[in-house]
């Protein structure tokens, strides 16, 4: 671990978490602290647009599912797998735990993760959700069905931002290539 950092910085952020910053700082001749601060600024610049994207996708998909199943709690009758049902149960439990109340459908929808909504766009739901329902939530999307529908976030800037992972020069270069 580099000696240019105060002990409190290392203790607060954990040495393993700082390791990529130490390597990059040594390579680029900058301080670990300035690189870490820069990383926070990069992540912050992604946060607001990602939140708008998440809420927009969630609301568009929810609207189509409500219309298709003629009920606001569409997940009670939709052909979801066990993993998706578990995610819904966890979201409802979180709402109950936080508010001490029986969750409304709006509370459950808002508590579901972005990962949940993106999972409904996966290939396993093509026949049951994408083709009959969810394609209507994206009226301007015209890619072939075999593609990832353009919503892949694993390993992307979105996931890095939301998981507070480092954005380093090579990472940013690969994201814009």
TrEMBL record:
- Superkingdom classification of source: Bacteria
What is the protein name for this chain?
Uncharacterized protein
Q: Which organism is it from?
A: Nocardia callitridis
């Amino acid at each position: 671990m580099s000696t240019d950092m105060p002990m409190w910085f290392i203790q607060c952020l954990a040495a393993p978490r700082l390791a990529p910053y130490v390597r990059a700082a040594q390579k680029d001749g900058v301080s670990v602290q300035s690189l870490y601060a820069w990383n926070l600024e990069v992540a912050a610049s992604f946060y607001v647009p990602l939140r708008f994207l998440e809420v927009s996708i969630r609301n568009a998909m929810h609207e189509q599912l409500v219309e298709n199943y003629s009920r606001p709690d569409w997940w009670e009758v939709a052909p979801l797998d066990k993993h998706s049902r578990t995610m819904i149960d966890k979201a409802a439990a979180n709402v109950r735990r936080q508010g001490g109340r029986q969750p409304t459908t709006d509370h459950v929808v808002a508590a579901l993760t972005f990962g949940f909504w993106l999972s409904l766009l996966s290939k396993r739901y093509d026949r049951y959700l994408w083709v009959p329902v969810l394609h209507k939530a994206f009226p301007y999307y015209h890619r072939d069905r075999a593609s990832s529908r353009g919503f892949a976030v694993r390993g992307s800037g979105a996931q890095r931002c939301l998981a507070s992972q480092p954005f380093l020069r090579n990472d940013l270069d690969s994201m814009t290539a």
